[in-house]
C-alpha cells in the first residue's frame, strides 16, 4: 500500500474542475517552494486557497507524478494577493480580476469578513453601487454556506450534487438538520439510497439497532416499493424486506424489532395498517389517504345522474345529422353517458374510435352549454389531444397549477378550496395516471362536475403507484363503454391490426411490401443496434422521406442488450457526430452536444422557458418532454433546449434532469406518438421487461411506420407473455366494499 502523506500549499492554477462532482486537477505551490499537481474532490475551489491535503503520490501514465488527495482541509487565503486571486477567479458574479484587486487593496486580509458581514462597505470602492454590494455580499454568504455544506457532504461520502437541493430547502440549517436526522436524505425529494444515509448515520455514531435507524429502514422499504407500483405491502413482506435491508455481517435486525418499528410508525401516523384484500396491509399514510379518498369520492360521483327535460339521444341525433359523422351504437352510448353520469369510462384499443367519440362528447357538451376542461398526463399527450379535438388540452400538472410550496415540496394551486372552474373534466391516457395524481385532480373538481376518463387499459400501467384505470373498470362501480370494433379506415393499418393481434397473443402478420409494419429479425444485440442505426440514418430517410427527427427509437431496457443507453451512444455518434463547430458538455457518462435530441426526465416546475418568438415566458418542464439542444454556452455554464414551441435554459448543475433521447424506454414513451417508431428487442434484456404490454405499448406509439428489429425468440416471448407484474393495490376492493347508503 502507498504511504499516506500530507502536503501544504497555495492553489496557483485550476487545471480542470467538474462543477457537478467537485473533481479538480490543480497546481499547488507547496510550502517547500515546489509546484505540484494535485487531484481530488474539492468543490467550489478558488485560486489562492490554502490547502492541507492528505493522500498519496502516484505516477500517472500521461501526466507523470501527481498527488492524489483523499481528504483535505482548506482555508481561504489571508494575504492581500491571495484575496485578489481568489475573488478574481470567477467564483462570484460581477467580480472580475480588476475589481478583485481593488477589493483586496482596500480591505486587505479583512476582505472576506467585509464581504460576509458588512458588504455595504464595498461601496467605498468606486464603481460599486449599494445594490451591487448587497448582491456580492449575498453571493459570498451563500457560497460560504454552500462550501460548508459541500465540505460536510464530501467528508461523509455523500454526493456533492445534493448541495443545491439541500441548500434550497434548508439553507444554512442543512448541516444541523442532516446531523440530527441523516435518514431524511432517503425521502423522495433527495432520493438517496439507504446505504448512503446509513453511512452518514454511522459517522454520526447513531446506533445501528436504534429505533431511528429501524424506522428509517421501514419507510425506505415502503417508498422503494411504491416505485414498483404497489400502494401497500403485506406486513410479512415488509418485515422481511426491511429486516434484510437493516442487517449485515455485523448487525442483525430481528423481525420483532421491525414489527415494533411498524407499530411506532403506525402510532405516529406515518403508516396505516389495515386488513384488506385478505391481507394484513401496510400503507404509507399518503397512499392510504389516496386510495380511500378515490374510493369514496368516485363512488359518490358515480351515483350522480343528471336530468334533462329533453331527450339526450335526440339531441345527439340532430348534431349527427348536422355533421358528416355517423356514430356506431357504442360510441353513441358513450357520448350520452358522458353527459348523463358523474363518471364515465371510455376504453378501447387503437383505431376503435375513442378520439372520434371524445369529439362527439365535446359537441354535445357545447350544445348543452357546459364548460369543459381537457387534460392528459404528459405534455405530448396533451398536445395530441388538443390537435385532435381542436381545443386546448393541458397536462394535469398544468391544469392544477402545480408549483413548489415552501421547502420545495410539490403543491397544487387548484385544490378543494380553489377548485377548477368547469362542468366537465375529460382526461385522456388515464392508464398512465397514478392514484396520487388522480386524487389531486378529483379534489380540485368543483362540486357536481362530470368526469370522463379515456384510456386503453391494455397499455402499460402507470409508473407511479396503483392501477387506477384497471381497478376502476374491474370494480363495476362506474359505467364503462369498451369500444371493440376496429373502424374500416383503421383496418388499413398493419400497425393497428398487429397491435390488436399482439394483444390477443398472436404473432404479428408478416410484413407487406406497401405496409406500415415491418419486422427485421437479427440475432444479437450488436446486429440489432447496427440495424437500428442504419434505419435511422439512411434507410428510413431514403425510402420514406422521413427526417431523422421524425423517427423515435424505443427499447424495453436501458442498459441491457440493445437498451437505450448503448443505443443513444451509437445514434448520437451517427446522427450528430462531434465537430469543432459544435460545443459539448460532459455530464457523468453522457456527452451533450449542440444538435442532440434530449428528454427532461423529471417534473421541474422552476425551469424558466420563453416562447420561440419571445412573446411569452413561464416556468415548468415535465418528465418526458423531448427537445433539441440548440446552444451550449461554456462561459455561462448553461445550455438552451428547444422544446416544440419554447426555449428552456439549463445551467450545468441541472443536467442530471436531461438524458439523450434518440432512443427512449417504452415506459418513457407512454402517452406519446411519433411518425415512425423503431423498436429494438434483444435477448439479454431482463425477462421482466419482455412482456406483451410493453410490446403493445411500443407498437401503438407509431403513427405512420413501425419497424420491429429484434431477436425472433425475444419477440415471440413478449407476444406470449401476458404477465402483468403484480401490484398490491386495494382500490378495486374498496370501491366494491363501500355501501352507498353510508356515503
Ligand atoms: N363512427 C365512425 N364512422 C366512421 N369512421 C370512424 C368512426 N369512428 C371513428 N372512425 C374512424 O376510425 C379511425 C380511428 O378512430 P379514432 O382515431 O377516433 O380512434 P382511436 O381509438 O382514438 O384511435 P387511436 O387510439 O389509434 O388514436 C379514424 O380514421 C376515424 O375517422
From TrEMBL:
All residue ranges annotated as the AAA+ ATPase domain in the record: 340-503
Pfam families recorded: AAA_19 (PF13245), HHH_5 (PF14520), HHH_RecD2 (PF14490), OB_YrrC (PF23139), SH3_13 (PF18335), UvrD_C_2 (PF13538)
InterPro entries with a match to the protein in the record: AAA+_ATPase, Coronavir_polyprotein_1ab, P-loop_NTPase, RecD2, RecD2-like_HHH, RecD2_N_OB, RecD2_SH13, RuvA_2-like
GO terms under biological process: DNA recombination
Enzyme Commission (EC) number: 5.6.2.3
GO cellular component, one term: exodeoxyribonuclease V complex
Keywords: ATP-binding, DNA-binding, Helicase, Hydrolase, Isomerase, Nucleotide-binding
Residue ranges crossing the lipid bilayer per the database entry: none
Reaction equations catalysed: ATP + H2O = ADP + phosphate + H(+)
Residue positions binding ATP: 351-355
Top-level division of the source organism's lineage: Bacteria
GO MF assignments: 5'-3' DNA helicase activity; ATP binding; ATP hydrolysis activity; DNA binding; single-stranded DNA helicase activity
NCBIfam families to which the protein is assigned, alphabetical: recD_rel (TIGR01448)
Entry function: DNA-dependent ATPase and ATP-dependent 5'-3' DNA helicase. Has no activity on blunt DNA or DNA with 3'-overhangs, requires at least 10 bases of 5'-ssDNA for helicase activity.
Family assignment from sequence similarity: Belongs to the RecD family. RecD2 subfamily.
Protein name as it appears in the record: ATP-dependent RecD2 DNA helicase
Native source species: Butyricicoccus pullicaecorum 1.2
The gene coding this protein: recD2
Amino acid at each position: 500500500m502507498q504511504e499516506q502523506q500530507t502536503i501544504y500549499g497555495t492553489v496557483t492554477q485550476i487545471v480542470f474542475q467538474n462543477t457537478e462532482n467537485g473533481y479538480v486537477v490543480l497546481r499547488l505551490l507547496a510550502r517547500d517552494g515546489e509546484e505540484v499537481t494535485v487531484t481530488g474532490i474539492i468543490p467550489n475551489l478558488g485560486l489562492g486557497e490554502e490547502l492541507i491535503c492528505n493522500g498519496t503520490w502516484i505516477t500517472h501514465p500521461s501526466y507523470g507524478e501527481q498527488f492524489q488527495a483523499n481528504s483535505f482541509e482548506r482555508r481561504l487565503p489571508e494575504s492581500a494577493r491571495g484575496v485578489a486571486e481568489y475573488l478574481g477567479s470567477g467564483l462570484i458574479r460581477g467580480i472580475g480580476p480588476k475589481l478583485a484587486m481593488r477589493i483586496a487593496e482596500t480591505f486587505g486580509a479583512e476582505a472576506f469578513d467585509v464581504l460576509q458581514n458588512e458588504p455595504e462597505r464595498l461601496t467605498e470602492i468606486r464603481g460599486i453601487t449599494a445594490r451591487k454590494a448587497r448582491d456580492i455580499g449575498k453571493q459570498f454568504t451563500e457560497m460560504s454556506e454552500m462550501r460548508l455544506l459541500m465540505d460536510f457532504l464530501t467528508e461523509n461520502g455523500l454526493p456533492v450534487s445534493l448541495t443545491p437541493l439541500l441548500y434550497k430547502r434548508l439553507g444554512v440549517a442543512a448541516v444541523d438538520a442532516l446531523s440530527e436526522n441523516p435518514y431524511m436524505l432517503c425521502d423522495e425529494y433527495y432520493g438517496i439510497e439507504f446505504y448512503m444515509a446509513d453511512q452518514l448515520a454511522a459517522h454520526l455514531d447513531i446506533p445501528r439497532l436504534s429505533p431511528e435507524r429501524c424506522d428509517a429502514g421501514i419507510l425506505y422499504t415502503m417508498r422503494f416499493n411504491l416505485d414498483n407500483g404497489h400502494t401497500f405491502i403485506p406486513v410479512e413482506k415488509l418485515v422481511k424486506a426491511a429486516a434484510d435491508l437493516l442487517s449485515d455481517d455485523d448487525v442483525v435486525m430481528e423481525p420483532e424489532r421491525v414489527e415494533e418499528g411498524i407499530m411506532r410508525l403506525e402510532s405516529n401516523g406515518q403508516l396505516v395498517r389495515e386488513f384488506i384484500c385478505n391481507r394484513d396491509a401496510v400503507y404509507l399514510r399518503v397512499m392510504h389517504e389516496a386510495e380511500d379518498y378515490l374510493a369514496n369520492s368516485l363512488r359518490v360521483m358515480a351515483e350522480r345522474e343528471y336530468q334533462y327535460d329533453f331527450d339526450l339521444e335526440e339531441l345527439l341525433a340532430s348534431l349527427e345529422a348536422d355533421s358528416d359523422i355517423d356514430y356506431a351504437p357504442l360510441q353513441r352510448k358513450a357520448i350520452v353517458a358522458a353527459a348523463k353520469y358523474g363518471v364515465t369510462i371510455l376504453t378501447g384499443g387503437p383505431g376503435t374510435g375513442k378520439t372520434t367519440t371524445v369529439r362527439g362528447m365535446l359537441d354535445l357538451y357545447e350544445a348543452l352549454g357546459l364548460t369543459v376542461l381537457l387534460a392528459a398526463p404528459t405534455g405530448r399527450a396533451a398536445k395530441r389531444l388538443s390537435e385532435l379535438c381542436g381545443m386546448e388540452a393541458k397536462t394535469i400538472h398544468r391544469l392544477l397549477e402545480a408549483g413548489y410550496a415552501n421547502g420545495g415540496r410539490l403543491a397544487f394551486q387548484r385544490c378543494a378550496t380553489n377548485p377548477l372552474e368547469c362542468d366537465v373534466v375529460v382526461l385522456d391516457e388515464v392508464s398512465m395516471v397514478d392514484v396520487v395524481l388522480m386524487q389531486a385532480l378529483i379534489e380540485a373538481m368543483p362540486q357536481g362536475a362530470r368526469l370522463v376518463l379515456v384510456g386503453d387499459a391494455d397499455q402499460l400501467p402507470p409508473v407511479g403507484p396503483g392501477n387506477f384505470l384497471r381497478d376502476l373498470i374491474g370494480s363495476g362501480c362506474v359505467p364503462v363503454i369498451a369500444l371493440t370494433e376496429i373502424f374500416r379506415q383503421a383496418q388499413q393499418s398493419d400497425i393497428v391490426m398487429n397491435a390488436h393481434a399482439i394483444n390477443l397473443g398472436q404473432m404479428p402478420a408478416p410484413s407487406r411490401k406497401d405496409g406500415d409494419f415491418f419486422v427485421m429479425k437479427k440475432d444479437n444485440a450488436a446486429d440489432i443496434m447496427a440495424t437500428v442505426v442504419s434505419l435511422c440514418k439512411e434507410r428510413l430517410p431514403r425510402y420514406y422521406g422521413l427526417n431523422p427527427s421524425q423517427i423515435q427509437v424505443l427499447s424495453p431496457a436501458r442498459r441491457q442488450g440493445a437498451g437505450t443507453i448503448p443505443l443513444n451512444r451509437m445514434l448520437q455518434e451517427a446522427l450528430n457526430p462531434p465537430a469543432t463547430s459544435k460545443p459539448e458538455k460532459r455530464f457523468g457518462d453522457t456527452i451533450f452536444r449542440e444538435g442532440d435530441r434530449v428528454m427532461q426526465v423529471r417534473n421541474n416546475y422552476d425551469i424558466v422557458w420563453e416562447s420561440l418568438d419571445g412573446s411569452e415566458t413561464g416556468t415548468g418542464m415535465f418528465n418526458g418532454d423531448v427537445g433539441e439542444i440548440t446552444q451550449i454556452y461554456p462561459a455561462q455554464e448553461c445550455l438552451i433546449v428547444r422544446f416544440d414551441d419554447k426555449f428552456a435554459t439549463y445551467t450545468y448543475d441541472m443536467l442530471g434532469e436531461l438524458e439523450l433521447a434518440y432512443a427512449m424506454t417504452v415506459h418513457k414513451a407512454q402517452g406519446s406518438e411519433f411518425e415512425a417508431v423503431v423498436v429494438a428487442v434483444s435477448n439479454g434484456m431482463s425477462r421482466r421487461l419482455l412482456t406483451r404490454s410493453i410490446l403493445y405499448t411500443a407498437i401503438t406509439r407509431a403513427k405512420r411506420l413501425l419497424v420491429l428489429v429484434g431477436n425472433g425468440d425475444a419477440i415471440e416471448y413478449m407476444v406470449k407473455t401476458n404477465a402483468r407484474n403484480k401490484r398490491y393495490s386495494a382500490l378495486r376492493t374498496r370501491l366494491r366494499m363501500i355501501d352507498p347508503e353510508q356515503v
